[in-house]
Every structure is written in C-alpha cells, then in structure tokens.
Request: fold
Amino acid sequence: MNPNYISLKKLRKPELKLLCKENKIRGFSKLKKQGLVDLLFSNLYPNETKVNKTELKEPSPEPIVLKKEPLPEIEPLESLEVKVLFESEEKVEEPTEQPIEEPTETTTTPIKPQKTQEQFDAEYLTLLKEKMEQIKIKNEKKKIKKEKKEKEKFLDLLDPDVIATINNLIRKIYK
Reply:
C-alpha cells in the first residue's frame, strides 16, 4: 500500500475533517472515515495510486491444477473373517449364529384425520380475532397512558399560584 494512504488511514475522523478544511476540499461533511480518507488522498496526491506499482507488478501464483485419475477397480468382499490374538493362548469360541425371533404382534398408531380447509380456515379466523383483540387492548392501554402523561405534563406546567387564581375565578363564576 502507498505510505501516504496508510498515514491518512491512521488518522481519526476529526483530524481528517480538519485536513479537508485546511486544504479547502468541499463535500466532506457527511462522509464516513473511509470516504474522507479516499477524498483526501485523491485531492492531496492526485498522481499516486493507493497500491504501489511494485505491488501491481508481482505475478499472481499459478493456480493448482488437480489431475483426475480413475479410481482402481476393487472387488467387493462377501465376508471378512477377523481373528483376534490375545496374549494368553486360550482359545476363544466363536459365537454360533442363533436365529433372531421376529415379533409376532404388530402395533399400529392411529392416524389423525386431516383437517378440511373449512376447519383450518375457521381456526385461523379464530386466532386472528384473538390476536386483533389483544392488539386492540394493547393500543387502548397505550392511549390511556399517553392521555395520563399529557395531563401530568399540563399540571406540571401550571404554577400553584395560577391554579389558585383559576379556582378562585371558577368559584366567583358559580356563586
């Protein structure tokens, strides 16, 4: 990378903005840090690139090419006999195969009948109504809270002397 570009990247955003002001560069106020770095670099070093020319000339490594070789043919084994040797020379009897008994009783689980489209629609509508009711209640609670806050704000704004004068005026009117 170009050392000038790297040095600009190391600066913080306020420092970059100050550089823009000092060099009378326009259009920097809303840019993020990377945008400021790019703008400053292009204005301060117009004949340079971010990447050094030596970095550009380096050849890229050659791609590795894998050769496809056919897999050798392997004959499948029908049975494989494994003998285990123990430290002691005791003979181990090979287990004899015993027929496995299959269970005679079969259990079946009852299949639930599928719902018809009408049943599904009815359940869906019921859930929708419940959800709408919940939303309605939630909105009413929010509205009540908001009204309560507005009343409190209004009462907080009034000075006790003003409230006393208003009460006196009301009493005079109704006497």
